[in-house]
Amino acid sequence: MEQLFTNMPVLIAHAGQNKILYHLIVIVIAAVAAFIPRYFPVLFFSTRKIPEWFNEWMKYVPVSLFTALVVKNVFITTAGYRFVPFGHVEQILAAVVVMIVAYFTRSMAMSVIGGLVAVWLLSMVI
Questions:
Q1: 30 shares its domain with 65
Q2: Dihedral sign computed on CA atoms, order 47, 51, 57, 59
């Protein structure tokens, strides 16, 4: 194991010649970088009692973030970054479909699938 770490700069230096090794090194580094921010909160909060008010507050975070992303993409243009109420009619109608599906099914998966199908069909028609 020690020999692997002492030879790591040599492996990285020669990785440009060997594309497979370069890609494997990038994948491993990206996996570690993606794992660390997910593991430490679990490690930190697994031994602590989380207050009930915090849990109540946190259940609204995904909905609010999802809403902010959707509203920005539907009602804000990239050219000039300004509000356009009816710039993307097919996306507005698809958002209404998503709201209806989400209200009746209470399923994020069904809402996303319904929204994707609605945008696809409406973009072909409109």
A1: no
A2: positive
Q: Which domain holds residue 111?
A: 52-125
Backbone angles phi, psi at 76, to 5 degrees: -115, 130
Please name the residue ranges forming H helices in 1-126: 2-6, 8-14, 19-45, 52-58, 61-75, 89-105, 108-125
For 64-123, what is each residue's pLDDT tens digit? 887 888 888 888 887 778 888 888 888 888 889 988 998 899 888 898 899 899 988 988
Distances (CA, A) of 95 to 81, 90, 104, 109: 21, 9, 14, 14
Give residue-wise pLDDT tens across range 33-54: 999 999 988 888 888 888 899 8
What is the distance, to the nearest Å, from the Cα of residue 124 to the centroid of all Cα atoms in its chain?
A: 26
Cα separation of 74 and 119, whole Å?
12
Q: What are phi and psi of 83, to 5 degrees?
A: -75, 125
Q: Is the pTM of this model over 0.70?
A: no
Q: Are residues 35 and 62 in the same domain?
A: no
